[in-house]
Amino acid sequence: DLPTVAIVGRPNVGKSTLFNRLVGKKLALVDDRPGVTRDRREGDVGFGGLAFRIIDTAGLEEADSESLLGRMRLQTEAAILEADVVLFVIDARVGVLPADRPFAEMVRRAGCPVILIANKAEGGAGMAGAYEAFSLGLGDPIPFSAEHGEGLGELHSALQEAL
Ligand code: GDP
Ligand code: MG
């Protein structure tokens, strides 16, 4: 069986864009409007000699009720349970928000290797946000751009080490 990598983070940080980048097909729905990506998606990834299964956790971005937040939390917990490695994604342009912390907490509790991705950092943007990410206690952030494909070399090295 392939090892499993779960992409975790609050809505709108670019999880589905990262999923699409790694799977190489438009399997995950990405949209500018919050709330579009609801279903969990999985794909097989071949990435520079590495092979793994990847899980994109859903957004439920419109979560305005306890039940939706609860569902998102459960879904994230389930993905983390299956994961050999977690990719924890933040938006480097906006920095670390309170909404990031419950997800970071779930990941920390899981105890599996975590790769911290400071996304939306293309062209050196979002360095301040990347520094803030240190405060999550999940290790050194990789400045990354899922949209532009920056940081893939560093991600590959981190995955190689973690898998
Ligand atoms: P998710 O909710 O975490 O799955 O986030 P999405 O992948 O749906 O992306 C949310 C928004 O961020 C979309 O408008 C994406 O186009 C945008 N986005 C994703 N990755 C990047 C990136 O690397 N740079 C920039 N500037 N925007 C990005
Ligand atoms: Mg999504």
UniProtKB/TrEMBL annotation:
<feature type="binding site">
    <location>
        <begin position="119"/>
        <end position="122"/>
    </location>
    <ligand>
        <name>GTP 1</name>
    </ligand>
</feature>
<comment type="similarity">
    <text>Belongs to the TRAFAC class TrmE-Era-EngA-EngB-Septin-like GTPase superfamily. EngA (Der) GTPase family.</text>
</comment>
<comment type="function">
    <text>GTPase that plays an essential role in the late steps of ribosome biogenesis.</text>
</comment>
<feature type="binding site">
    <location>
        <begin position="9"/>
        <end position="16"/>
    </location>
    <ligand>
        <name>GTP 1</name>
    </ligand>
</feature>
<protein>
    <recommendedName>
        <fullName>GTPase Der</fullName>
    </recommendedName>
</protein>
<feature type="domain" description="EngA-type G">
    <location>
        <begin position="3"/>
        <end position="163"/>
    </location>
</feature>
<comment type="subunit">
    <text>Associates with the 50S ribosomal subunit.</text>
</comment>
<feature type="binding site">
    <location>
        <begin position="56"/>
        <end position="60"/>
    </location>
    <ligand>
        <name>GTP 1</name>
    </ligand>
</feature>
